[in-house]
Design brief:
With about 180 residues, the protein is α+β, with helices and mostly antiparallel strands. Helix content is about 20%, strand content about 35%. The protein contains 3 helices and 8 strands, in the order H-E-H-E-E-E-E-E-E-E-H.
Length: about 180
């Protein structure tokens, strides 16, 4: 037998060791990348119309409300909570989310509803691609299928709208939310 050549029996004997080494290498997943906020392009950021709230005299003024939106990147399964005030625009990678308004029914009203008027822009393919609108409308926490952000990569949904109402005690609204 020539030096440096393995017999068939020796090759077969090395296969289980090679398979175990490959499996061990496959199980070491690299750390997942985190979402990174970047600058909003001027043509989208400057296009934001100031929110002109209709003041019914009930609840927190629109400019003082804070909505919590969920953002999912389906490609890498990364989710991020965005806390935004009405009129605010945020960019995370290739997606821009603009919040125009958020509302919540008063504690004494039924059914309980939490909603937000949201606009979503996504950058097209290519290095110099522009952002295009993929959604503009109301999203509701209790009815996520009523209006859906239909995009193959990104999903946006309402988690909460922080606001208060006169006469409602903070303890009462906290106990109602925990009962949901």
């Amino acid at each position: 037998m020539e030096p440096g050549r393995l017999t068939v029996h020796r090759r077969v004997a090395l296969l289980p060791a090679l398979a175990l080494a490959l499996l061990a290498a496959c199980q070491q997943d690299p750390p997942a990348p985190g979402p990174v906020e970047t600058e909003v392009p001027e043509n989208i950021g400057s296009a934001a119309q100031p929110v002109e709230p209709v003041d019914a005299g009930i609840g927190t003024p629109m400019e003082e409300r804070v909505a919590t939106l969920g953002l999912l990147n389906k490609r890498n399964n990364l989710t991020q909570d965005l806390e935004m005030k009405p009129g605010e625009t945020r960019r995370i990678g290739d997606v821009i989310v603009r919040l125009q308004a958020c509302e919540k029914t008063a504690p004494w009203e039924m059914p309980k509803e939490t909603g937000a008027f949201v606009q979503v822009f996504v950058r097209g393919r290519g290095e110099n691609a522009d952002f295009g609108s993929v959604f503009s409308g109301w999203l509701f926490k209790e009815s996520p299928s009523l209006n859906v952000v239909e995009h193959p990569i990104y999903d946006v949904w309402v988690k909460d709208c922080a606001m208060s109402f006169p006469g409602a005690t903070p303890d009462a609204s906290a106990s109602e939310e925990s009962a949901e």
